[in-house]
């Protein structure tokens, strides 16, 4: 069997979307003849841990976890974008362990994943020292991320130079959307280097589907965190516009970190409708999804085409539940429409969001709330299909 070294700061039991996507990216690769060795971080102070996810890691995937120095200095420098991220203190420990693995395990190829960018810096160092082929996988854009703002031109150029070095040194780049590929191609003219492999869902997590028991209220559920420009405010504004007799029959569950937006439920007097629930174990997320009537997706507003493909959306589309997607045109909207799984509304269109909520509510009251998913399209986003596409890329390089 060929051996692959995956460099990913985030990996179970660290609880994050990137941790799930990193795991999904390699879980099924052994079926294609690959032995997987993962280089990850130990329990970080700033990240949540979900020990229940440890049991899902197959025994044929070996995980090596190293220390990482993370403190107020690295967080401050990262905040002002002087450092690409606050995980930079992982480099020394990960490179040291990585070199040992390369020597002892006869690795054939290196794959690194971001976020954080630090994973790619480690991949760069290990690739240069070993002369092994290296693939850099980007879940999100880096310098061209529309929601990252640099304090001045000098700091932006520092990050651009580092990004350019990674782009030119890696043999192949994997991105999740055609929109992200376009950003990189326009800047670096590296179209031949880039392969699109979207984020994925793991079918094994959907084996025990428990649909919602009949309740009096119409349940709308959002899974994920709010941060930066991604805010629930447009949805809450629309909710407030509904007739009182309708809103009293609606229950909204925001599951995850709401951060600086917590005050909004009080601002719009929606505390009796909206529940804010802290992060829950991953095994309970699917119970929440199937115990809902409509699943809510909220992306940040943008005057450009959306380049992001949230991992939760790929899990949403496999539930047969209708999706209300508050998102600009772009990657998320394309997936919703191609899979036939929901309604897309612009984040700026408050009246349109209100109309969509009422549309789904009326269908619910008449017992006609159902969709006709395009399962052939949905299956393209399975973790097995991700493994198949990644295997094809790997075999061209090894």
CATH superfamily of the largest domain: Glycogen Phosphorylase B
Give the overall silhouette. Answer: globular
The largest sheet has its strands arranged as 3-2-1-4-5-6-7
Mean pLDDT: 92
Largest sheet: 7 strands, parallel
Instruction: Kindly provide the radius of gyration, computed on alpha-carbon positions and rounded to a whole number of angstroms.
Output: 21 Å
- Class inferred from helices and paired strands: alpha/beta
Detailed description of the structure:
- By secondary structure, the chain is α/β, with parallel strands linked by helices.
- It has 2 domains: 2-200 and 382-397, Rossmann fold (3-Layer(aba) Sandwich); 204-378, Glycogen Phosphorylase B (Rossmann fold), CATH 3.40.50.
- It is built from 15 helices and 13 strands.
- Helix 1 crosses helix 15 (383-397), helix 3 (91-105) packs parallel to helix 4 (118-130) and helix 7 (233-241) crosses helix 13.
- The model has no long low-confidence stretch (mean pLDDT 92).
């Amino acid at each position: 069997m060929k051996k692959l070294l995956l460099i990913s700061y985030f990996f179970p039991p660290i609880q994050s979307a990137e941790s799930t996507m990193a795991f999904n990216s390699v879980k099924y690769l052994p079926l294609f003849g690959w032995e997987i060795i993962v280089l990850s971080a130990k329990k970080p102070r700033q990240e949540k841990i979900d020990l229940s996810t440890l049991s899902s890691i197959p025994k044929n995937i070996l995980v090596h976890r190293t220390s990482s120095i993370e403190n107020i200095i690295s967080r401050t420098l990262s905040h002002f974008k002087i450092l690409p991220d606050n995980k930079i203190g992982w480099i020394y420990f990960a490179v040291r362990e990585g070199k040992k693995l390369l020597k002892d395990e006869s690795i054939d190829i290196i794959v690194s994943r971001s976020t954080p960018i630090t994973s790619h810096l480690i991949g760069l160092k290990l690739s240069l020292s070993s002369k092994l082929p290296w693939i850099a996988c980007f879940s999100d854009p880096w310098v061209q991320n529309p929601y990252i703002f640099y304090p001045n031109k000098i700091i932006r150029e520092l990050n651009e130079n580092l990004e350019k070095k990674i782009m030119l040194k890696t043999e192949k780049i994997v991105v999740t959307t055609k929109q992200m590929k376009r950003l990189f191609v326009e800047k670096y003219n590296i179209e031949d280097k880039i392969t699109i492999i979207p984020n994925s869902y793991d079918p094994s997590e959907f084996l025990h589907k428990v649909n919602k028991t009949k309740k009096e209220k119409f349940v709308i559920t959002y899974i994920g965190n709010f941060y930066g420009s991604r805010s629930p405010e447009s949805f809450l504004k629309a909710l407030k516009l509904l007739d009182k007799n309708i809103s009293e029959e609606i229950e909204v569950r925001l599951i995850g970190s709401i951060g600086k937006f917590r005050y909004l439920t009080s601002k719009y007097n929606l505390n009796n409708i909206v529940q804010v629930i802290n992060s829950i174990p991953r095994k309970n997320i699917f119970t929440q999804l199937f115990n809902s009537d409509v699943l809510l997706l909220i992306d940040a507003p943008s005057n450009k085409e959306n380049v992001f493909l949230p991992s939760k959306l790929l899990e949403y589309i496999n539930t047969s539940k209708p999706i209300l997607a508050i998102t600009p045109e772009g990657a998320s909207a394309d997936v919703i429409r191609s899979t036939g799984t929901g309604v897309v509304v612009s984040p700026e269109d408050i009246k349109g969001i209100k109309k969509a909520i009422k549309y789904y509510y009326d269908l619910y009251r008449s017992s006609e709330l159902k969709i006709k998913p395009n399962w052939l399209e949905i299956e393209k986003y399975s973790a097995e299909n991700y493994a198949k596409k990644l295997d094809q890329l790997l075999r061209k390089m090894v």
